[in-house]
């Protein structure tokens, strides 16, 4: 009977035995625990370094893109400003060439007024010369006269005053009462015309 009582006593540890076992296990446990945080800290530090490098690269890209944007914005502003200046100059000096072409006509008219000649033939010759100068100046400015006798009536280029009986085809222009003018295919003034009435 003594044997059976000793076995249960040896199988059920006392609090002193537990303390001794823990003391024996403690040095090994203490040695193992610091190794685990060191091993876990190495990948975390590598990941932090990689994240920091990616952040620095992204910030550099943002700075470069911002600089490119500012340059492009400045260039666009310069182009817009130059275009506005060009348009302003074009409006301001658009008539300059035309005015230069009219100056000889003005000179001829002033010379005619200063001439005291009574010869009607010379006066007429001077007026014809001045008219040729004026027509040339208008043509240089791309202003062309419309003299549409015999043409089909076009309400965009002609203004009919009346319809008259005529031998020619209906709705064609019989007579031009006042010339019309176009500039680069744009009508400045429609021609005043009479149109053949239908038969």
Report the strand count: 6
Q: Taking strands numbered 1, 2, ... along the chain, how are they ordered across the largest sheet? A: 1-4-5
Largest sheet data: 3 strands, antiparallel
Helical content band: 55-70%
- Global geometry: elongated
Region (Disordered): 1-52
Family: Belongs to the GrpE family.
GO molecular function, one term: protein-folding chaperone binding
Protein name: Protein GrpE
Describe this structure in words.
The chain is of the alpha+beta class and 199 residues long. It has a domain at 144-199: Nucleotide Exchange Factor Grpe, Chain A, domain 2 (Roll), CATH 2.30.22.10. 65% of the residues lie in helices and 16% in strands. It has helices spanning 2-11, 15-93, 96-114, 120-140, and strands spanning 143-146, 158-164, 173-178, 180-183, 186-189, 191-196. The strands form two sheets. Strands 1-4-5 form a three-stranded antiparallel sheet. A hairpin with a 2-residue loop joins strand 4 and strand 5. Helix 3 runs antiparallel to helix 4. The longest helix has 79 residues, at 15-93. Residues 1-52 are annotated as: Disordered.
């Amino acid at each position: 009977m003594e044997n059976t009582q000793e076995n249960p006593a040896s199988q059920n540890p006392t609090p002193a035995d537990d303390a001794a076992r823990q003391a024996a296990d403690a040095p090994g446990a203490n040695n193992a625990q610091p190794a685990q945080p060191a091993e876990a800290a190495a990948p975390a530090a590598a990941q932090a370094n990689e994240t920091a490098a990616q952040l620095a690269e992204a910030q550099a890209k943002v700075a470069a893109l911002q600089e490119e944007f500012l340059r492009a914005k400045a260039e666009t502003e310069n182009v817009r400003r130059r275009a506005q200046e060009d348009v302003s100059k074009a409006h301001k000096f658009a008539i300059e060439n035309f005015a230069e072409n009219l100056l000889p006509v003005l000179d001829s008219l002033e010379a005619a007024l200063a001439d005291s000649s009574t010869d009607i033939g010379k006066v007429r010759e001077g007026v014809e010369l001045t008219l040729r100068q004026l027509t040339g100046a208008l043509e240089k400015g791309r202003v062309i006269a419309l003299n549409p006798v015999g043409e089909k009536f076009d309400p965009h280029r002609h203004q009919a005053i009346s319809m008259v009986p005529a031998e020619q085809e209906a709705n064609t222009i019989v007579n031009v009462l006042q010339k019309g003018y176009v500039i680069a295919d744009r009508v400045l003034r429609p021609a005043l015309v009479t149109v053949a009435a239908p038969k």
